């Protein structure tokens, strides 16, 4: 299947942390778009998973992002896949939709880890952040070269909905307008 399968989807939200976000180029947009994905996922019934990198140093996830504490993975590795038990939380046939910061560090290394573990991975370019735009763009190109699909928030939401007859169509569309 070339589109994102909502029945196999999992939304992974990587490291939108309080001490990091003030330095992220256009960070408000990345946070806003990550929230759109989170709300759409809740509405449609897509499971969610969150990470925090070295929370003692980078602080907790920003207050604007509604982290579900029972779905939060604390990590020290930049690649979350290297943390004990992380991949056990992601089914082998999952379509993993990834948003987060920083694009060229934790997001990229986690995406490459997911691809190496044979997880189908979709990187949401308008829900990513890095301190410098060139780092973000370079990371997007590298992830794509290694097999990640590059998508946008709207693409994800419409693929999760599948049809205008979906009972969640109107409230989901309201999230992207």
User: Could you give the order of the helices and strands?
Assistant: EHEHEEHEHEHH
Fraction of residues in helix: 25-40%
The main sheet orders its strands as: 3-2-1-4-5-6
* Termini gap: 28 Å
Shape: globular
| Count of separate structural domains | 1
Output mean pLDDT.
Answer: 96
Record field, number of beta strands? 6
Features:
177 residues, alpha/beta, Rossmann fold, 6-stranded parallel β-sheet, 6 helices, 6 strands
Give an account of the 3D structure.
With 177 residues, the chain is of the alpha/beta class. Helix content is 37%, strand content 20%. The chain has one domain: 3-Layer(aba) Sandwich (Rossmann fold), CATH 3.40.50.850. It has a 6-stranded parallel sheet with strand order 3-2-1-4-5-6, with helices on both faces. The radius of gyration is 15 Å and the shape is globular. It is built from 6 helices and 6 strands, in the order E-H-E-H-E-E-H-E-H-E-H-H. Strand 4, helix 3 (103-116) and strand 5 (120-129) form a beta-alpha-beta unit. The chain has helices at residues 27-44, 55-58, 103-116, 133-145, 153-161, 169-176, and strands at residues 9-14, 48-53, 72-75, 95-101, 120-129, 149-151. InterPro entries: Isochorismatase-like_dom, Isochorismatase-like_sf, Isochorismatase_domain. Residues 9-154 form the Isochorismatase-like domain. This is Isochorismatase.
């Amino acid at each position: 299947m070339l589109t994102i399968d909502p029945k196999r989807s999992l939304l992974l939200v990587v490291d939108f942390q309080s001490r990091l976000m003030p330095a992220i180029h256009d960070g408000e947009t990345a946070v806003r778009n990550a929230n759109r994905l989170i709300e759409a996922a809740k509405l449609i019934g897509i499971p969610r998973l969150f990470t925090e990198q070295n929370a003692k140093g980078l602080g907790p996830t920003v207050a604007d992002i509604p982290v579900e504490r029972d779905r939060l993975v604390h990590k020290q590795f930049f690649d979350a896949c290297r943390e004990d038990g992380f991949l056990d939380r992601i089914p082998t046939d999952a379509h993993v939709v990834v948003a987060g910061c920083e694009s060229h560090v934790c997001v990229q290394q986690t995406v490459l880890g997911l691809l190496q573990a044979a997880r189908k991975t979709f990187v949401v370019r308008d829900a990513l952040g890095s301190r410098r735009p060139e780092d973000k763009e370079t990371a997007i190109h590298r992830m794509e070269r290694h097999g990640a699909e590059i998508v946008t928030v709207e693409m994800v939401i419409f693929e999760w909905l599948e049809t205008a007859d979906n009972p969640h169509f109107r409230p989901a569309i309201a999230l992207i307008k």
